[in-house]
Design a protein that fits this description.
With 244 residues, the chain is α+β, with helices and mostly antiparallel strands.
Length: 244
């Protein structure tokens, strides 16, 4: 049975040997920098992995900042090449997916809160806006989600061709679109509203309604359907839970 991390390390387990401490006491006994060092595995020249990991965490301002860093930024630290940067990025993405309890195929979207609950953890650490399309079947059950663009939301960046292409190929009966505001404020911008109106009109022409466009952020979420960004003739709103 694994020992408590508060217990005294077993004889022969050095305090400066994180791999051995992990095996003896569990991963929770290690610091953030030590966990990062285990992912790096090796350092560079005379610079050990622990030193490289500590520098990465310090420069990023902590683990949250490191999780936000792009692979190119990680490679800016001496001793971190493309392979190590990819390993770190993959580890943080796995952590985000685990934390999100992300929607699985067959799960139903019943409210804008469902969208926020499942997608905000996935988008929380993204340094730029990310636009996702959630493909739904006729009963609003998830088929899959697709990342279609990265960057500030504009009509030129979020084109109906990229948004509805995956829906036509599945085929999907409807879609929900979601994007994040890295600023933490979910208030929709004029561009958010313009993109929503354009996509809603395209969806009506294609027979694939846009059920909602949800902006997620640290301070909460906003449904653009509830905010009045959809034309009155648009498809029905996703019902909110009755609370009963």
């Amino acid at each position: 049975m694994r020992r408590s991390p508060l217990a005294t390390p077993a004889a022969g387990v050095r305090p400066d040997a994180p791999r051995e401490r992990l095996e003896e006491l569990g991963a929770e006994s290690l610091s953030d920098a030590e966990l990062v060092a285990l992912l790096l595995r090796t350092g560079s020249g005379r610079r050990p992995a622990r030193e490289v990991a500590h520098a990465l965490v310090e420069r990023a301002g902590g683990l949250r900042g490191l999780a936000r860093a792009a692979p190119a930024e990680l490679r800016g630290e001496r001793g971190v090449g493309a392979a190590k940067a990819a390993t770190l990025a993959a580890a943080f993405e796995l952590a985000r997916r685990l934390a999100s309890g992300r929607l699985r195929p067959g799960d139903a979207i019943r409210s804008p809160a469902d969208v926020h609950r499942h997608f905000y953890p996935r988008l929380r650490d993204a340094p730029h806006e990310r636009f996702l399309v959630v493909l739904l079947d006729g009963r609003h059950r998830v088929i899959r989600s697709v990342l279609t663009s990265v960057g500030t939301l504009t009509a030129s960046l979020v084109h109906p061709r990229e948004v509805f292409g995956p829906a036509l190929r599945e085929p999907a009966a409807a879609i929900v679109v979601v994007h994040n505001h890295p600023s933490g404020d979910p208030t929709p911008s004029r561009e958010d509203r313009d993109v929503t109106a354009r996509l809603a009109a395209a969806g009506e022409l294609l027979g694939i309604p846009v059920v909602d466009h949800v902006v997620v952020a640290e301070q909460g979420f906003v449904s653009l359907r509830e905010a009045g960004a959809f034309a009155p003739a648009g498809p029905p709103q996703v019902p909110r839970p009755s609370g009963r």
